[in-house]
Design brief:
Elements (H helix, E strand, L loop, with lengths): L1 E5 L7 H12 L4 E6 L12 H13 L5 H17 L6 H13 L4 H20 L2 E2 L2 H4 L10 H15 L2 E4 L2 E3 L5 E3 L5 H11 L4 E6 L20 E3 H9 L11 H4 L5 E5 L8 E4 L13 E14 L9 H11 L4 E3 L6 E7 H4 L3 H12 L4 E13 L9 H11 L4 E6 L5 E7 L3 H12 L1
Parallel strand pairs: 1-2, 1-7, 2-4, 3-4, 7-9, 8-10
Antiparallel strand pairs: 5-6, 9-10, 11-13, 11-14, 12-13, 14-16, 15-16
The structure holds aspartic acid.
Length: 435
């Protein structure tokens, strides 16, 4: 059995609905369909979820949201009419309009995008609509109650066989709707794949898989055929944005592969994400390159810093106090540096630096900003001698100064820090060398 999740652009219009139906009908194993809320139909269009968040903001400030609501209404009615669906979606929309006057919760309101899209899609596919609030169960701390969810999902499957489930939300034990983080429909799909022990979790989007590098920097980057969960984690953390990162955990320990596919080009193979790749037919040494700009490095100098027990802890405690996530801690003999995101430290930089001076009892603290971090990621790097040599040589030949180096102990990534202004150039020359 296959769980197939469709993103917002895949269900943005009646034309997209038709593509979804063709995909579902072409394989009877696609029994569980998860949908996002209807997304953008064209550049500059609005996502239904964003409009619903905006309606909520209007309500909060008692500003009329009539026009916004009408746009939402029209989008669903248009799909219903164009596909001649029996479902009278106008009734559900009227109900929602009434709820708005009762100051319904934000979670309930924004979940309606998936709910209404799901009702229309179920009708169109001839599948049973199963409300996520009846089968996806949260604990009160916001974590998923997998046991309860599994029971409810299996029951629904036994009863109906083929189901459409709206993504992005579920309910607390008392039945109140709770939404996940933005982009959470990916997580719903993953939860369903897990509790049903699906053969594969298909994630249908508007790109033909995961690319080796950011297409805004590299023209037509190659597509990744297979990638491990851990490689994807590294790439996502460093800025590659494909799948909600929390969507990996539910399927990871059961080793259910995730397939990233394109609703607009269903014949393309896409990218497979799995735990391990045994017969590694990957041609290159690296799987992908990603990176992020705007980090700040705070370097602390103290004679014999590396021999003093507890010094690093004291420094890190300052960051903890200000709730600033530490990305890397490269160190020397008489100094160590702490790399953090510039955005996170901006407001408290002055306070942090003066506290650091106190705890390490040294006035020598240097702050440099405008650092970019970029990572080359690949499971095959561990087996190859000379990858970092090649990396440094390439950057050196192009006169890109390396300001920091880090490598994870599992050797699936090498991270280098370069000046912000060298970022795009560094990605380009590394792509040309390794991809
Ligand atoms: N509709 C929600 C959002 O825009 C969830 C999703 O699409 O996955 O964030």
């Amino acid at each position: 059995m296959i769980v197939s999740k469709f993103g917002g652009s895949s269900v943005a219009s009646s034309e997209q609905f038709q593509k979804v139906r063709d995909i579902i009908k072409s394989n009877p194993e696609r029994k569980v369909v998860v949908t996002s809320a209807s997304g953008k139909r064209y550049k500059g269009d609005n996502k239904v979820t964003d409009m619903l968040y905006l309606i909520h903001a209007h309500l909060q400030y008692s500003v009329s949201s009539k026009d916004l609501f009408t746009s939402v209404q029209n989008r669903f009615i248009k799909i219903q009419e164009e596909l001649s669906l029996k479902t009278n979606i106008a009734v559900d929309l009227e109900e929602l309009e009434l709820e708005l006057t009762k100051r319904c919760s934000i979670d309930y309101l924004v979940s309606r995008g998936e709910y209404l899209t799901g009702i229309l899609l179920a009708d169109y596919l001839g599948y049973k609509f199963v409300d996520a609030k009846d089968i996806i169960r949260f604990n009160y701390d916001g974590s998923i109650d997998f046991e309860k969810t599994e029971m409810l999902v299996k029951d629904a499957m036994e009863q109906h066989g083929n189901i459409v489930v709206p993504g992005f939300y579920g309910a607390y034990p008392d039945g109140t709707v709770h939404v996940m983080k933005r982009g959470g429909s990916d997580i719903t799909g993953s939860i369903l794949a897990r509790v049903l022990n699906a053969e594969v979790y298909e994630n249908w989007t508007d790109v033909s898989g995961i690319l080796m590098a950011d297409p805004r920097i590299i023209k037509n980057p190659k597509q990744i055929e297979k990638i491990t969960y851990s490689e994807l984690r590294e790439l996502s953390y460093m800025g590659a944005n494909v799948l909600h990162e929390d969507a990996i955990y539910p399927v990871k320990d059961l080793n259910i592969p995730i397939l990233i596919l394109n609703t607009n080009e269903p014949e393309f193979k896409g990218t497979m994400i799995c735990e391990s790749i045994l017969h590694d037919e990957a041609k290159g040494i690296i799987t992908g390159i990603a990176g992020k700009k705007d980090f700040t490095v705070i370097t602390l100098y103290r004679h014999n810093a590396s021999n003093e027990v507890g010094l690093l802890r004291k420094a890190l405690e300052v960051f903890e106090k200000y709730k600033i996530n530490v990305e890397h801690v490269p160190s020397g003999i008489d100094n160590f540096s702490i790399v953090v995101s510039s955005k996170n430290i901006e407001r408290v930089l002055y306070d942090v630096v003066s506290e650091l001076k106190q705890v390490i009892q040294s006035d020598s603290v240097k702050v440099t900003s405008n650092l970019s971090l970029l990572a080359i990621v690949g499971r095959n790097m561990a087996k190859h001698v000379g990858v970092s040599g090649q990396l440094f040589k390439t950057l050196g030949e192009h006169e890109i100064n390396i300001r920091m180096i880090a490598q994870g102990s599992d050797e699936i990534n090498i991270i280098v820090g370069v000046e912000n202004e060298d970022f795009e150039k560094a990605i380009t020359v590394l792509y040309d060398t390794f991809a």
